[in-house]
């Protein structure tokens, strides 16, 4: 017998049959893996090396029917302005509120298609404040409409609501020294469910989404789960205000729009003097406890947002968000001068760019055109910084003209809504 066979015979006697079987199994698995290695694409899937191209090929047509649920104090005016400008560039019809509803669709009432000005129907787009009602919106909008909305971290959102609506929401007006801390210490002492504008003081996100803002997830967890399910059923994208640029990247991908279509100027921002620089941790916790339904919504959709970013490739989304920021800075410099700054309304000389001021105590900022608009400028720059009220009025006039509606008295709604916030008189800023 050759020496090699002798050696094998010896080793088989010393190794158990079981060990040999394991060895054979291990070797065949490794060889199988090596054989298929070239066909396995784990590496690119785990670490995408490059972004899918900005322009898809073959290019998908830009999606033209969009309904944006503009929730309150969530950067919605900035998104609305992006949509208004897109609609104008593509000659689309924007659904606008009937004048009796001012610039909101008769909020806080449930949305009804009757609130839409006849000259703005049938619409491709809708982006003004309303309380969500699925059936009514589906009655109005084309069947291929993409629904999107935006949420903001509830403590930051509540601080903004408390400051902006301080003079109008009775629950806030009752608080001594307009103290957010005092309100959040004992909200029940100031809050009366069902009274005028109560929804600005309790779970505003849930209310805007058509939910019952008085429900507590602590007593009724199923209610929050149900509301989340309803939102997921309708909305193709829930943006997050804290990650505004990343949200726009997802939006433009969803709608097959160009990056240029989502460039923006920040609108409706309070001056630093009108806001808390930081919200102390204890106050933030109290705001989240009081607005527990909103906190539940936000936590859920913040998590789904990041899962979506991961699916698109986080590095790609970040890279595109960076490109967006750079392009945005170039545009702002081109429009508003080398050092584009947000200014208080009193310093804005171009009347069409002066933002509405909710009260003497709160400064809402805006941009101004060089030379107060007297210098060379473009219509695109004017629209970029145009506040909601002026832009809505302008679009309504334009669409009425396009539809051949002459200036005749507006039809009166059967049951006019309470005077909404935007109808309140503008407080003089001393200019
Ligand atoms: N791009 C961007 N990113 C992050 N945050 C932004 C952005 N644009 C606007 N904002 C902030 O959003 C707040 C205004 O929200 P809205 O426009 O929805 O308010 S409103 O309900 O229409 O009155 C307002 O928040 P506060 O300043 O805290 O009040 C704005 O500063």
Automatic annotation (TrEMBL):
Write out the annotated subcellular location.
Golgi apparatus membrane
Q: Which Gene3D superfamilies match?
A: P-loop containing nucleotide triphosphate hydrolases (3.40.50.300)
- The segments labelled Disordered in the record are 400-431
- Membrane topology, as annotated: Single-pass type II membrane protein
Main localization category: Golgi
KW Phosphoprotein (keyword) present: no
Ribosomal protein as UniProt keyword:
no
Keywords of this protein's UniProt record, alphabetized? Glycoprotein, Golgi apparatus, Membrane, Signal-anchor, Transferase, Transmembrane, Transmembrane helix
Q: Where are the transmembrane segments?
A: 20-38
- Identify the PANTHER family for this entry: GALACTOSE-3-O-SULFOTRANSFERASE, GALACTOSE-3-O-SULFOTRANSFERASE 3
The record's family statement is: Belongs to the galactose-3-O-sulfotransferase family.
Q: What is this protein called?
A: Galactose-3-O-sulfotransferase 3
Q: Which organism is it from?
A: Mesocricetus auratus (Golden hamster)
Higher taxonomy: Eukaryota, Metazoa, Chordata, Craniata, Vertebrata
């Amino acid at each position: 017998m050759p020496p090699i066979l002798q050696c094998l015979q010896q080793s088989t006697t010393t190794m158990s049959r079981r060990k040999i079987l394991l060895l054979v199994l291990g070797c065949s698995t490794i060889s199988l893996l090596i054989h298929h290695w070239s066909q396995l694409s784990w590496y690119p899937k785990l670490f995408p090396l490059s972004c899918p191209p900005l322009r898809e090929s073959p290019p998908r047509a830009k999606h033209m029917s969009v309904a944006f649920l503009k929730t309150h104090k969530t950067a919605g005016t900035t998104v609305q302005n992006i949509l208004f400008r897109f609609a104008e560039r593509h000659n689309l019809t924007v659904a606008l509120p009937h004048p009796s509803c001012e610039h909101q669709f008769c909020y806080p009432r449930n949305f009804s298609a009757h609130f839409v000005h006849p000259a703005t129907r049938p619409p491709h787009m809708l982006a003004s404040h309303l309380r969500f009602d699925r059936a009514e919106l589906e009655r109005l909008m084309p069947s291929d409409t993409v629904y999107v909305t935006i949420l903001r971290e509830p403590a930051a959102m509540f601080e903004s609501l408390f400051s902006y609506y301080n003079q109008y929401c009775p629950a806030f007006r009752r608080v001594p020294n307009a103290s957010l801390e005092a309100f959040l210490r004992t909200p029940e002492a100031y809050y009366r469910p069902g009274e005028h504008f109560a929804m600005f003081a309790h779970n505003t996100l849930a209310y805007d989404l058509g939910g019952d803002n008085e429900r507590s997830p602590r007593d009724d967890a199923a209610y929050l789960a149900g509301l989340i399910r309803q939102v997921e059923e309708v909305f193709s994208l829930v943006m997050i205000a804290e990650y505004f640029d990343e949200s726009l990247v997802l939006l433009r991908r969803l709608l097959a729009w160009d990056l240029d279509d989502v460039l923006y100027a920040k609108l409706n921002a309070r001056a630093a003097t009108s806001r808390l620089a930081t919200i102390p941790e204890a106050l933030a916790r109290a705001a989240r406890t009081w607005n527990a339904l909103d906190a539940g919504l936000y936590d859920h959709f913040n998590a789904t947002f990041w899962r979506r970013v991961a699916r698109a490739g986080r590095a790609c989304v970040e890279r595109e968000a960076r490109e967006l920021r750079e392009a945005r800075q170039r545009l702002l410099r081109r429009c508003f001068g080398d050092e584009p700054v947000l200014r208080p309304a009193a310093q804005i000389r171009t009347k069409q760019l002066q933002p509405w001021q909710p009260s003497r105590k709160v400064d809402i900022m805006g941009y101004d055109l060089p030379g107060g608009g007297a210098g060379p400028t473009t219509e695109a720059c004017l629209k970029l910084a145009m506040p909601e009220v002026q832009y809505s009025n302008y679009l309504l006039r334009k669409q009425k003209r396009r539809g051949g509606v002459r200036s005749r008295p507006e039809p009166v709604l059967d049951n006019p809504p309470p005077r909404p916030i935007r109808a309140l008189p503008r407080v003089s800023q001393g200019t």
